[in-house]
Amino acid sequence: MRQKLVAGNWKMHGSQQMVTSLLKELLSKQAPNARLLVFPPYLYLSQAAELLAGSPIGVGAQDCSQAEEGAYTGEVSAAMLADLGVSHVLLGHSERRQYHAETDSQVLEKAKRVLAANLIPVVCVGETLAEREAGATAEVVLQQLTAVLEGLSLDELKKVIVAYEPVWAIGTGLTATPEQAQEVHALLRSAVAKVNKELAATMLFLYGGSMKPDNAASLLEMPDIDGGLIGGASLDADQFLAIGKAAE
Ligand code: PGA
Q1: What is the whole-number distance in angstroms between the Cα of residue 46 and the centre of ligand 1?
Q2: What is the CATH number of the domain that holds 126?
Q3: Ligand 1 centroid vs 214 CA: distance in angstroms?
Q4: For residue 219, what are the contacts with CB-CB under 8 A and spacing of at least 6?
Q5: Per-residue pLDDT tens over the stretch 68-81
């Protein structure tokens, strides 16, 4: 049985004051029976890690450098994130792919760095609206996933989490229907099964894209949806916890 995971991607939102008030609010309310994780901006990771120390809520980073260390101005390494007490790193989010031209091979290199630092990579895949309308959804998501499946060892893959985020559903209020999301999740899981059946049975596949309290339960009850990657709704403690509750 895969325990559901509900992760909040804060993107470039927040301030020191907001981080403290949102996390204190999350900690003060009844925790759901699902695992919770937040991805604050880099600058607030150590503040978040301190506030959440000893709590059941984990902290992740939204990206990391593909380099180990050195002359890479502005970059943050996986080892630095580990040093801060971060446990997960989001990789290949569609906003990174779109605005920073991140490629599948960069996502793979980053995943290797994350794993070498003993952190868990959360690899995002997803098709654009044009790709869905052209009937290319399966081809696009499988290509993104295959880059990671082929580049990592079985032991490394055991630590990987995959997030399916249709680009057309991110921040738009349009959500994939539970059936549309399930279809892609099942496809991704079957691609993993070709590598190793046991790996496919244990790997977590999160859905992301306008997941809200009112649509979370129907998505999360699908057999291959193991949790959510929540953007907008994770900035509101009540909404985030309500989605966590829907995952129980
Ligand atoms: P959204 O974002 O929930 O605001 O659509 C999801 C994401 O991009 O991770």
Answers
A1: 23
A2: 3.20.20.70
A3: 15
A4: 175, 176, 178, 181, 207, 211, 225, 228
A5: 999 999 999 999 99
